[in-house]
Design goal:
mainly alpha; 2 strands; 71% helix; globular
């Protein structure tokens, strides 16, 4: 009887991730061992069986495991190790469940982070954003997985949920700041891999939709401004610059000095995205076609009934300015 109980306990421990006191231990060796055990556990098929309540407990432990890391190099290494777990989980749906746990824990615990620790959590968000894109790239931007990824960002408890007043504004601000940069890095990483084939076109309209929806329905004026200044303007500037370059290459009579000057001024903004991108699932489009398609989608979101009137006016203004620039070329 005792042997059976022992066997049952052993079996149970093999299908449960390390939690609580191990991940949040004050002893670094204990925390490191817990992270390695967690990675090994989640890399098995059993990880898919984790219920939502267990995932929340798991992320409580991981969050405070990262909280206890106190040196820059240790923090960087641990942030990378935790984010890379997304890519060792065998099933993409389970990876996204782990990602959902990350975002829900981050939103839930954010208010308790002191100013001395906030930068390392910004770094953790950056690492997870990059790993998320690499996961979707690995799955060839599968439409169902991309839709689930967007839902994670925009559902209640997600960082880009317009209706959730508990989401601290600093999280969507930071995401707007880093989103395209990390996407470009992820595309470059796959392109540079000797074992990988050419990456599929990046579905920009799909990936930007959470920001369009947030800009449309947020109650915070600064959030709309931040999305415009940190995300939309840099992207459309890069597309505009790339579109000019494409036109220059097609027109043999163009002034070559002007073309070179444009390239110097524009800089290499998101080149790996723009050189191979689409709107949703079609083939790669030119920079000019991407501009028109994204502006059309922005206009459609701005026109939706649930868009707040003040936000609608700002989105229409952005659309009019950019559409006007395009028509003047």
């Amino acid at each position: 009887m005792a042997a059976a109980a022992s066997s049952s306990s052993s079996s149970s421990s093999e299908t449960s991730p390390p939690l609580g006191k191990y991940l949040a231990s004050t002893d670094k060796k204990t925390r490191d061992k817990a992270i390695k055990s967690l990675t090994a556990f989640l890399s098995t098929d059993d990880a898919s069986a984790l219920p939502k309540s267990e995932m929340a407990k798991l992320w409580k432990g991981i969050f405070y495991c990262f909280w206890m890391s106190d040196k820059p190099l240790v923090q960087q290494t641990l942030a990378t190790e935790i984010a890379e777990i997304l890519l060792v989980i065998p099933h993409p749906s389970s990876s996204l469940a782990f990602l959902r746990g990350f975002w829900e824990a981050t939103v839930r615990e954010w208010a308790g982070i002191d100013r001395l620790r906030i930068d390392k959590y910004y770094m953790l968000i950056r690492r997870f954003t990059n790993a998320s894109f690499r996961l979707l790239l690995r799955e060839n931007w599968d439409s169902a997985l991309s839709a689930e990824y967007n839902a994670i960002l925009t559902d209640h408890g997600g960082p880009l949920c317009p209706e959730d007043v508990k989401v601290p504004p600093s999280i969507p601000y930071h995401l707007a700041d880093i989103y395209l940069e990390e996407l470009d890095k992820a595309v470059l990483a796959l392109s540079s891999s000797s074992s990988a084939s050419s990456p599929p076109p990046t579905p920009l309209s799909t990936l930007l939709h959470p920001f369009f929806a947030l800009a449309a329905r947020t109650s915070t004026k600064m959030t709309v401004q931040r999305i415009e200044s940190a995300l939309l303007e840099p992207l459309f500037d890069a597309l505009d610059s790339s579109s000019h370059t494409e036109q220059d290459e097609d027109n043999e009579n163009d002034n070559e000095d002007r073309a070179r000057k444009r390239l110097r001024l524009s800089g290499p903004a998101f080149p790996h995205i723009i050189s191979n991108a689409c709107l949703a699932s079609e083939g790669a489009l030119s920079a000019g076609a991407l501009q028109k398609g994204l502006l059309k989608r922005l206009f459609e979101v701005a026109s939706e009934e649930q868009t707040k009137d003040a936000n609608r006016r700002k989105m229409y203004k952005f659309w009019k300015t950019r559409a006007g620039d395009d028509e003047n070329e």
